[in-house]
Write a structure and sequence with these properties.
- The complex is a heterodimer.
- By secondary structure, chain A is mostly helical.
- Among the domains of chain A are: about 80 residues, no CATH class; about 80 residues, Alpha-Beta Plaits (2-Layer Sandwich), CATH 3.30.70.20.
- Chain A is about 55% helix and about 5% strand.
- Chain A is built from 19 helices and four strands.
- In chain A, the strands form two sheets. Chain A has a two-stranded antiparallel sheet with strand order 1-2. In chain A, strands 3-4 form a two-stranded antiparallel sheet.
- In chain A, a hairpin with a 2-residue loop joins strand 1 and strand 2.
- In chain A, helix 6 packs across helix 11 and helix 7 crosses helix 11.
- The radius of gyration of chain A is 24 Å and the shape is globular.
- Chain A starts with 19 loop residues before the first helix and ends in a 23-residue tail after the last strand.
- Chain B is of the alpha/beta class.
- Chain B has three domains: about 170 residues, 3-Layer(bba) Sandwich (FAD/NAD(P)-binding domain); about 120 residues, FAD/NAD(P)-binding domain; about 120 residues, Enolase-like, domain 1.
- In chain B, the strands form seven sheets. Chain B has a five-stranded parallel β-sheet. A five-stranded parallel β-sheet of chain B has the order 9-16-10-11-12, with helices on one face. In chain B, strands 21-22-25-24-23 form a five-stranded antiparallel β-sheet, sandwiched between helices.
- Chain B is globular, with a radius of gyration of 24 Å.
- Chain B starts with a strand and ends with a helix.
- Classes of the chains: A mainly alpha, B alpha/beta.
- At the A-B interface, helix 7, helix 17, helix 19 and strand 4 of A face helix 2, helix 4, helix 7, strand 21 and helix 8 of B.
- The structure holds flavin-adenine dinucleotide and iron/sulfur cluster (2 copies).
Chain lengths: ~475, ~450
């Protein structure tokens, strides 16, 4: 059936519904983006004035647009037209956004000069736009990473607000989204910048000596944060000038991996991380929300997923083991293989940059919002094993109520064929489930409930779906 | 090894086929004129609304059928020759069978209204109906829907998702009030209006008027009012789709008549799902059951009979569900539109007017008979078990937290419900804490 009508909207409201307030809000948000593009094109703008205007218009415009669009409709599921809109159904608009995002990542990673970063000298373009903010916080010009972190945070905040209005009837979604927004704003963005401002990180002494840098986003846990055990990183955390903060990060990082992660995953599933605090997850759940239905549900995709995510996990374990060996023995090679060029560099290039950045985010409009989380992330792989075999978390199926409609599977960003379980009356216990709760939200028959309960009967596959006495369990 | 042929690839035919395959090595062929593969009819609305594409409504991937040796044939069966054990297709081909299963579903009702066959007038049952609706609903100034049932309200929601103005003619005094009690029905009336649907209660269709091209241009209601529209949805129920059985010797009334084993009057011919009519209805159930769940359960039972384990269709406690625009509805046990003389009734409604609970129980024993819950979710296993154990309404309310199935972090209403119940019934029921031990005991 050809129901594709070109439509540029990214949320439910039909264009006919768009009223003046919405239009103005949309224009304001676009104006913010326009400032970014203009700055990028080196149009002479006073950054001190235009940078705050850009940030406020993007967050404010999106918030007002989301509020206006959703609040004037009764609360409920808002997926009308998702498969009709060009942006959300792999149409031309989706390709354009995908190419733009991918291009941005390529420049950011390998050609930062093209986004305006100047190593020694004055920044230009997009990076220069954020100089005043960086100066205000930590007294030095922005880097391309500061610019990226700021935009990333803005995306989570602005589109998180939209998500909140969209799901205002669902308290699980509401609280979860507030959690990812705070996690990004406070832990990933503000605290690290403040630490740098207070000279607990990223310091160059007056003598011109660089004291080192460590990742001060405390919730960015190894193995997602794959360079945690790199020597520069371990040294920076032990740097005298950074104490006691550096050591706290070192200890917390290891404790989170060794104790926090398994315990929390046992108690409530990997969702505590993936859809409540993680930065990658945060972007996926907010900016990526309009693309969650694009994940493949095919059995083949599940096979690829298991193969791929566990390979990446083995890769990061081996790479890290070798790195630590080098760190403690003071050598730069194992078995004649150079640690940097044979292990760290390929991991950083293929996994850190290409997989998690370019494919992970750049391909949102093509492959869905969780490609990295599903196929690549070693942290997700690690927690997935715990969730699958030793956890209280499951999605309970409500007896015989499933009508096999397919909403749950379609909107599962992790590509889990939720319906395959629900229509058998079986609970869903899957390594990859990030507990976003959207399957439960979109189910029109109240069939799915995310819950933490005793491990007993967690996997039960009933011999017959309840409601039918024709078949006795004994026979 | 038998050659089992199933006409109809809906939930009934497919459940039968899948379970026959689990139990045996029989040759299985499933025939359908509608689509190549099984899809979920209940999800048709979501395709129109753009929530899903057709491919998402298929519960099994296309390779599933070959892998499980279930042959699929896309053809229309015109005639069944039970003496020669042969099916005749519309293209002239034939096919023999050892055992025949009729799972042909329903077709939309039409009640002989003037103009009911005009262009732009249609029901909604099949995939083809959906395609017709897609074509019929371009550039409308207004659509009229006739018939206040589950498919009617779905059709209204579909049209509203595209901002098409909708007038909804409902013959009853209140929406679906032959099934829903007063409170629930009123709630849905309000909700329909909240969605800017022009709801006309106690209004019948008299006539559909044509323009000069044979297309609908208006309807006239029982009160003589003319409503301009370019589309009319007729959703006044469905009836068994059994035209192909004429002259076959298979006994039919409204549907194909079957015994508790789903067997027809002819040996080796069975029928189930929407198209079957029970000679003896099961308890309080209707003699023709037109829901997804019953088709599935009949299929589970029939597969065993086909595999030489004669099994009666014995449905357990009634359950059903639906969604009225944004309000979900579940029901367990029996809740009649009006309480019977031997029943007591309790109704609680949240102050937002979108969440409610109704309980019915036997006056003499206090045993729970049925529950309706709208706007929040309840655990099927809990009620199934409580009915089986003959639990009283007091017991059920005390343990209501065990039955809550809303997502985590949602506000809960048990305390408010019980306070009202205690007040109205002079009782002092105390709410128990949720117990995982009891919840796990439901499932066994
Ligand atoms: C829009 C809509 C929404 C619904 N929503 C719900 C719901 O939410 N919950 C619920 O419980 N129920 C719902 N129902 C009812 C439910 O879908 C039916 O009860 C169920 O699908 C019946 O299944 P079945 O297998 O008996 O028949 P069907 O699904 O009708 O399958 C019969 C198949 O046989 C084919 N066929 C018929 N005659 C021939 C022939 N001569 N030759 C070849 N093929 C033939 C038909 O084309 C059809 O494909 C809904 C129905 C509709 C139309
Ligand atoms: S199964 Fe449900 S909760 Fe888990 S990831 Fe998929 S949609 Fe989210
Ligand atoms: S959304 Fe609900 S009813 Fe539909 S297939 Fe999934 S579990 Fe079943």
């Amino acid at each position: 059936m050809s129901t594709t009508e070109p439509n540029l909207s990214i949320s439910n409201p039909h264009p006919e519904d768009t009223d003046v307030i919405q239009k103005v809000a949309l224009v304001v948000a676009c104006f913010g983006v326009l400032i970014l593009l203009a700055a990028w094109a080196n149009v002479a703008l006073d950054a001190a004035i235009f940078m705050p205007i850009a940030i406020i218009s993007m967050i404010g415009g999106t918030t007002v647009y989301g509020a206006r669009s959703y609040l004037k409709q009764p609360e409920g599921i808002k997926n009308n037209g998702v498969w009709h809109f060009s942006l959300t159904s792999r149409g031309a608009f989706a390709w354009a956004v995908g190419i733009l995002l991918t291009g941005f990542y390529i420049l950011l990673y390998w050609f930062p000069g093209y986004v305006g970063f100047v190593q020694s000298g004055e920044n230009q373009g997009l990076v220069a736009l954020f100089d005043p903010l960086s100066m205000a916080i930590k007294g030095r010009p922005a880097s391309q990473w500061f610019m990226y972190g700021t935009l990333y945070t803005i995306a989570i905040l602005a589109l998180g607000m939209k998500f909140i209005f969209k799901y205002r009837h669902n308290r699980y979604q509401l609280i979860r989204t507030i959690s990812v927004m705070i996690a990004q704003l406070v832990f990933a963005y503000t605290i690290p910048e403040i630490l740098a401002a207070l000279n607990y990180n990223d310091v160059t002494t007056t003598a011109g000596e660089y004291a080192g840098y460590y990742d001060a986003d405390i919730k960015n846990v190894w193995p997602l944060d794959y360079d945690f055990f790199y020597s520069y990183h371990l040294d920076a955390m032990q740097e005298e000038a950074y104490q006691p903060v550096g050591m706290i990060y070192l200890i917390a990082g290891m404790a989170l991996f060794l104790v926090g992660t398994p315990v929390l995953t046992y108690l409530i599933g990997k969702r505590w991380y993936c859809s409540w605090v993680c930065g990658c997850g945060g972007l996926a759940e907010t900016a990526g929300d309009p693309f969650r239905h694009l994940s493949s549900k095919k059995l083949g995709a599940w096979k690829l997923e298991r193969w791929l995510i566990h390979s990446v996990m083995i890769f990061v374990f081996v790479m890290t083991a070798v790195t630590l060996y080098g760190y403690f023995t003071g050598t730069s090679s194992v078995f004649g293989l150079d640690i940097y060029s044979k292990f760290q560099k390929p991991y950083g290039f293929f996994i850190g940059a290409i997989f998690s950045g370019i494919i992970g985010v750049g391909f949102y409009p093509m492959l869905g919002n969780r490609v990295w989380c599903r196929f690549g992330c070693p942290m997700a792989g690690y927690m997935g094993i715990i969730q699958r075999f030793k956890s209280k978390f499951r999605i309970t199926t409500n007896g015989g109520q499933c009508i096999s409609c397919g909403n749950c599977s379609t909107y599962c960003e992790q590509g889990i064929d939720v319906r395959a379980y629900a229509q058998k009356g079986q609970n869903i216990v899957r390594a990859s489930c990030v507990g976003c709760g959207v399957c439960s939200a979109v189910c029109p028959r109240g069939v799915l409930k995310l819950e933490n309960g005793p491990e007993e009967k967690r996997y039960d596959l009933p011999p017959i779906i309840i409601g039918n006495e024709s078949v006795k369990i004994s026979d | 090894m038998h050659n089992i042929v199933i006409i109809g690839n809906g939930i009934s035919g497919i459940t039968t086929a899948r379970h026959v395959r689990k139990l045996s090595d029989h040759k299985i062929t499933v025939i359908s004129a509608e689509t190549d593969h099984f899809f979920s009819r209940t999800a048709l609305m979501y395709i129109y609304m753009g929530h899903m594409k057709y491919e998402h409504t298929k519960p099994y991937e296309d390779w599933f059928w070959e892998k499980n040796r279930i042959d699929l044939k896309r053809a229309f069966v015109e005639k069944v020759d039970t003496d020669g054990k042969t099916l005749h297709f519309s293209d002239g081909e034939t096919m023999g069978y050892d055992k025949l299963v009729i799972a042909t579903g329903s077709k939309p009702n039409k009640f002989g209204w003037p103009g009911q066959d005009l262009e732009g007038v249609q029901g909604l049952y099949s995939y083809q109906d959906l395609e017709t609706m897609e074509a019929n609903t371009k550039n409308l100034s207004r659509a009229v829907i006739v018939g206040g049932g589950l498919i009617g309200i779905e059709m209204a929601e579909m049209l509203r998702s595209r901002n098409i103005p909708v007038t909804f003619l409902v013959r009853e005094e209140s929406f679906w009030d032959n099934v829903l009690p007063y409170g629930e029905s009123q709630m849905i009336n309000r909700h329909i209006k909240e969605h800017h649907i022009d709801l006309r209660l106690a209004t019948e269709l008299k006539e559909i008027i044509s323009d000069e091209n044979g297309r609908v241009k208006a309807v006239i209601t029982g009160t003589g009012e003319t409503i301009q529209c370019e589309f009319v949805g007729l959703t006044v129920g469905v009836s068994p789709n059994i035209g192909l059985l004429k002259g076959s010797g298979i006994e039919t009334k409204r549907g194909v008549l079957v015994d508790p084993f789903l067997k027809t009057n002819i040996d080796n011919v069975y029928a189930l799902g929407d198209c079957a009519e029970f000679l003896e209805p099961n308890g309080e159930r209707k003699s023709i059951e037109q829901v997804w769940y019953t088709g599935r359960m009949m299929g589970e039972a029939l597969a065993r009979t086909l595999c030489d384990k004669p099994t009666k269709y014995e449905p357990g406690h009634w359950f059903n569900s639906a969604k009225f625009l944004d309000i979900e509805y579940q029901t367990y046990g029996w809740v009649w539109a009006k309480a019977k003389d031997n029943e007591n009734d309790f109704y609680w409604e949240h102050k937002n007017g979108k969440i409610c609970l109704r309980l019915r129980w036997e006056k003499s024993t206090g045993k729970l008979l049925g529950v309706n819950n709208l706007g929040f979710r309840l655990r099927h296993h809990a009620f199934d078990k409580w009915f089986k154990e003959g639990r009283t309404v007091d017991y059920v309310l005390e343990h209501l937290k065990d039955a809550n199935f809303d997502p985590e972090l949602y506000k809960t209403y048990e305390a408010e419900i019980i306070a009202q119940f205690n007040r109205e019934n002079g009782k002092n029921i105390q709410l128990k804490k949720k117990s995982w031990k009891r919840i796990l005991d439901f499932v066994s």
